[in-house]
Amino acid sequence: MKTPHRPRATGRVTLGDVAAAAGVSPITVSRALRGERSVAAELVARVQAFLRRHRAAPARCTFGNCEIDLVARRVRRHGADVELTAKEYALLAFFAGHPGRALSRGLILDAVWGTSVFVTPRSIDRCVTTLRAKVEPDPRAPAYIQTVRDVGYRFDPCGAATVDG
C-alpha cells in the first residue's frame, strides 16, 4: 500500500506537493504549468475540490444566546458554561456542522453513536429532548433544533420560527 505524500515543513510547495494534493502525477502538473489548457483546467478543478474537502471547520458556532467552542469542547449560554453529556455535545457539534440540512435519525445514529452500538431511534429523540432543555430558549417550541416529521432533525442557527412537526 502506498503511503500518502506529506509536504515538507519548509514553507515551500513543491511540484510533488501539488501533484499529491491534486491526485495526479508531477508530469501532469508540469504540463499544466507549460500552458496545456485542458490539463491546466483539470488540475485547477482537482485542487479546488481538494481544498473544499479539506477546508478547516470553523472553531466556533453561535446561535441565539449560545456559543459552541469546537476546539475547547465548551458550550456557553448567556456567557455561562452549559453542562452537556458527551453524547449531547457530540450531537450538538454534529448539528452545528450541518446547519440547515434535514438529518435523518439513521445518519445521526451513525455519526454520533457509531455503527458498532445498538441504539434505537428513540434514544436520539431522548438525547435531543435533553439537549433542547439546555440550549433552547423554549424547549417546547424549539427554534434551533427543529423536528422534521418522518425524517429526523434540522439545526437552524438563525432560529426559524416554523417547525415541521
What distinguishing features does this structure have?
single chain, 165 residues, alpha+beta, Arc Repressor Mutant, subunit A, 7 strands, 42% helix
- Largest sheet entry: 4 strands, antiparallel
Give the spatial strand order of the biggest sheet.
1-2-3-4
CATH homology group of the domain at 85-155 = Winged helix-like DNA-binding domain superfamily/Winged helix DNA-binding domain
CATH architecture of the domain at 85-155: Orthogonal Bundle
Here the CATH topology of the domain at 85-155 equals: Arc Repressor Mutant, subunit A
Query: For the residues shown, what is the average pLDDT?
Result: 81
Q: What is the CATH domain class of the domain at 85-155? A: Mainly Alpha
3D architecture notes:
The protein has six helices and seven strands. By secondary structure, it is an alpha+beta fold. Among the domains are: 15-53, no CATH class; 85-155, Winged helix-like DNA-binding domain superfamily/Winged helix DNA-binding domain (Arc Repressor Mutant, subunit A, Orthogonal Bundle), CATH 1.10.10.10. The strands form two sheets. A four-stranded antiparallel beta sheet has the order 1-2-3-4, with helices on one face. Strands 5-7-6 form a three-stranded antiparallel beta sheet. A hairpin with a 4-residue loop joins β2 and β3. α1 packs across α2 (26-33), α4 (86-97) packs across α5 and α4 (86-97) packs across α6 (121-135).
Provide a concise account of the structure shown:
The chain is an alpha+beta fold and 165 residues long. Helices cover 42% and strands 15% of the residues. The chain has six helices and seven strands.
